Amino acid sequence: MQIGRKPLVYALLATILIGSAGVWGIGSLLTRATNGRVSIPEKPAHVVQIDSTDGVRLAGTYWPTADKDAPAILMLHSNGNNRGAMSGTASWLNTHGYAVLAIDFRGHGESTPASKSFGLFEAEDAEAALAWLRQNHPQARVGVIGFSLGGAASLLGAKGPLLVDALVLQGVYPDIRRAIFNRLAIRLGRWPASAIEPLLSYQSLPRFGVWPSSISPIRALAQVEAPVLLMGGGKDTNTPPQETRAMYVAIRANAELRILEGVTHDALGRTSPETFPILLAFLDRNLK
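Above: the chain's sequence. Below: its structure in token form.
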């Protein structure tokens, strides 16, 4: 029995619609808010509230110093995480004479629930947090430590990268398309990742109003004037070492590159004695 063309066309259209709805649903899962409770470290740390844009209120933990002129650090966490993940490093830096502010991005931790944008709108949160830190330490030199999403947010602001005196980027992806491809390839393999990645990456236009090319930390690096420390993990599959090296090449001057052999993406952002001497030497050299 011969099947007519119309049923085949309808079946094909239905398959396309179902597939498109499925991919859009995946995009919705990737951008959904992941708020949750954050434990507060012991004193002198205390909670602060900072207003960002569009009614977004940011939760932060602040470690003050007795000297208002002491150097200050803004710490920015990774996607799906919160400021609590940076508490160990923040407390350690505070004992070495640094005032530290760690925030929850929108849609994370105890900040206002909102869709995630892979650093695009989170850049507004980073700017608001930096303004708060400068207001409380008007004469201090200020640095930023950004891990993954946090590093992207420090670079993707509408006015350009954050204007700071030192910038540490840990496991930061070069652009959104490679970030999505790498994460898909880990779970599905390279060929399925190649097919699905564009369907997710180009959702940036209806969701955020920009093309994927606008979510590109590597392009923004050329505008950075402060000294930069780029840190990558030798076993990082989210941001492989070759991508961190490409980020290093994109910086015009004043850059240092450290690839930590045997370190994964998640381990790179954790409190680690392996990274402490590297961080402290870079920050002391540029902020003290």
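The chain has eleven helices and ten strands.
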